[in-house]
Amino acid sequence: MRPVRVAPALLALLTLLAGLVTAAPSGAGVDPGVRVPQIESTTTAAAMPALRVRTRLRGLSHPWDVKQLPSGSLLVTERDPARLTLSPKKGVQRKVRFPARKVWTSGETGLMGLEIDPDFATNRRFYTCSGWRKPHGKDIRVNAWRLNRAETRARLIKPLLTGLPTVSGRHGGCRLLIADDGSMYVGTGDAAVGTNPRDLTSLGGKTLRLDRFTGRPWPDNPFIDAADAMQRYVHTYGHRNVQGLAQRRDGSMWSVEQGSYRDDEVNLLVPGGDYGWNPVPGYNESVPMTDQDLPGDQINARWRSGRSTVATSGGTFVDGDRWGRLDGALAVGALKNEMLLFIRFDASGRNPRVTRPAALHHRFGRLRTPVQLANGSLLVTTDNCCGMDRVLVVRPR
Ligand SMILES: [Ca+2]
Ligand SMILES: [Ca+2]
Fold first, then answer.
1. What separation in Å is there between the alpha carbon of 275 and the centre of ligand 1?
2. Where are the alpha helices (DSSP H) in 46-137?
3. How far does residue 258's CA lie from ligand 1's centre (Å)?
4. Higher pLDDT, 180 or 15
5. How much distance in Å is there from the Cα of 291 to the middle of ligand 2?
6. Residues 247, 180: contact at Cβ < 8 Å?
7. 342/232 Cα distance (integer angstroms)
């Protein structure tokens, strides 16, 4: 049979009609001759997306951080068993061999923050922040590792930064983030020692910034000329327990930290800034999270939880049109309230508005760390117990 030839004019008319039918909402009873504007399109008033959640990995224990390698494999740090777990794009998840017995684990401290070198494809480097057993004593430290080609074994290249304080394991931080300019940020906890946050010679209760190859303080650091070698690492101080670090599209750097009995905080980090946590004498947690009565200027949080806490942990700014109204929002994991918060700030980083999607509220237990994949979806780690934890994939429908 010969193909039916349609005149170009008729084809154009059919295409136009098809377009009108598609554009009109079904059952709206609109005159087919009138073009219907799309009121809730992503180009005008962006819609709040419905979220789809699926499980990518299971059988984990306290997965603290997760990152995707260029091969598509996921690398996960599990805090308390001090395990590095790898999930290949295809195939069964496995443990990566590394000197796990050197990792000191106690309470909130163990194998925590994870970063992949931006040049991983050529240098195979990644970084962890963890508790560490020394010949005499312990600390929290940032280590640089090299992963073999087979993705089965990690060798320690060198400790990049040592001497982050730890006592019982409470308030151990510790988040890593490599910024767009290649510098490495470290968010630390105060080790539940009241004097640490304001002591500029202690690495506890701070955000720090360093060179990811040499381990030296970043040359632009606000106290780079200080006599004390530790102080040269300090980017900001007066923090309680920085568990989240996130860089916004405009280049600004943000932290997420857990409040005491109130006021979890999201902070916009200003070099040299004092964020106002000074729980003394002893470890006096009745003081404000940002105590303006301290000498000098203290920087107020850009968002705080108010009279109770939700136990915020990791955070990342989500990026991409498919996130609709959440495009550019800060996604934050909340442990105590078992949810993912999306906090939308305005262009100046103020006026936070919070969304708590039902798809992630009280559905998977405690949620710790959201991480955005190259394809725009979010990975989210749960933090429950004993082989029951997962890595979820969250994407807009
Ligand atoms: Ca504060
Ligand atoms: Ca003051």
1. 4
2. 120-123
3. 10
4. 180
5. 7
6. yes
7. 34
